[in-house]
Amino acid sequence: MSYYDILLKYNDLPFEKIFREFSAQEIERLIHSDSQDPERFWALLSPAAEKWLEPMAQKAHALTLQHFGRTIQLYTPMYLSNFCENECAYCGFNARNKMFRRTLSPEEVEKEAAFIASTGIEHLLILTGDSKVKSPLSYIKKCLEVLKKYFSSVSAEIYALTEEEYADLASAGIDGLTLYQETYDEAVYQRVHKAGPKKDFRFRLEAPERAAKSGMRSVNVGALLGLSDWRKEAFLMGLHAQYLQDRYGDVEIGASLPRLRPHAGDFKDISEVSDKSVAQILMALRLFMPRLGIALSTRESSLLRENLLPLGITRMSAGSTTRVGGHTIASPEEENAPQFEISDPRDVEEMKTMLAAKGYQPVLKDWMQI
Amino acid sequence: MEDLLKLGGRSIKSRLLIGTGKFSGYPLMKKALEAAQPDIVTVALRRVDAGSKADNILEYIPKSCILMANTSGARNADEAVRIARLAKASGAGHWIKIEVVQDNKYLLPDNLETLKAVEILAKEGFIVLPYMSPDLSMAKRMADAGAAAVMPLGSPIGSNRGVKTRELVEILVREIKVPVIVDAGLGSPSDACECMEMGCAAVLVNTAIAIAQDPVAMAQAFKEAVSAGRTAYLAGLASSGSEANASSPLTGFLRDEA
Q: Would you identify the CATH topology of the domain B9-238?
């Protein structure tokens, strides 16, 4: 039994029909219910719920305050390498893209770390492309030795691993894993992942569970909104989070709402996800899982991030760049392409100022090496 | 004679302990603390950023308060012990609130792992206050293992639902020799007052103050409610009856014999 079995169960359901079956009265009742039944989550994501966004927002805000208070945790991503063996149609690091590739040396990692740490950031997210040759686990562990001197907690967003490999990283000091399924629709998944190790849908789908078993403190899932019907994606992503939370109580489960951004790739068949839909997903998730950590990255604009802030967000990135060595290492822009373009370029100080103005406390440190 | 709480070898005046999470900023938290006038303040060590002057929470806690680090984030006894030792080594003192949670859905404590941590830390000389589910045998074991107090939850952390565990907490108040301090779930000053009327030694409040519209005024309200509840307890509450007792319907016949 894994989440794959649950996914198969839902595969044959006529989602289009289900999402239209709720009456206004049912939606109103379900907003105020505390049920953790998947059907309630369907209802909150349905078109019928679009007329109830304000009451959903009120409840989402109250739940978030209750469980997380007026605080937002800040983190910064650091790209270690952009070598990649995958051909993901939506990604700037696609192996077929002719671009400048590099893997940071330990000295360069230290330079980046010193700069990010100087902004006050204590929680770092390291990222690599999918290449066990160019950024193997031994390399990541070597980087970690450097990073631990600068940050109180380091999480990773890297290629899917086995349980033993996750346990190895956890004992080396990686506290959390972020791994997006991209799409829960296996057919779409195979279409957009044209080649490379990532083509193994099930190995990736079950990776968050392997990480949860391995001793990691936090595991963060996500669907890349825009690859397929967003209601279905959000629903299956939320169920994935619930599946993990129900089974691995000692792991903090989180979810992210990444929306497809312009990139140097050939994926043009983007299914539209409006700001309103992103807000609906966020609120439905919060009502469905009151204690879920929810991150909103700089893929979204400053204004949208600020507006979504009170509706369920618990973590935000600041001072982001999606280029390898993008914080301190100069290279001609055309040679060092980003993974995707960011929309919110604000640095840590600016984010702190914004949060304070909105009545939120920026939390820079929320864990430490013990 | 002044009514003081004997705890950890100290005589404590305020029976309102304050938690420091969830505030919109440290300056506001400081003002709330000044209004509540607690003697004991708990801080999650995971949040202490000692390297940062502006963002170091410890700078905003009145120096007169006893700092009680908590082990928030610990998933087992071993992690709680390591966090406690880290707190002591970093100058956060030797008062420790043990929180061991393996349940991120409701944040309910793991009593067994908590007991193990109490046993180890009490031996090492810490003043140990375990956050626990109100279970009599566990509370006894924790007290026997050297806990300075036991801290049963009123309802789940942050739920603001009040003293849903009242029956169980009352048993602890009657049976446990160390102070019983209700921690978690108190949503309003009347909940805190209720705990004090029941004979609890103190209460610990965080969320209800931190996320109130006006945390400073709410801190003041909790202070007054705790004080009123304590006074009522000491005054000896009359037992409540639902009807007036104008006559003695069952024993009236005895008077006739006189």
A: TIM Barrel (3.20.20)
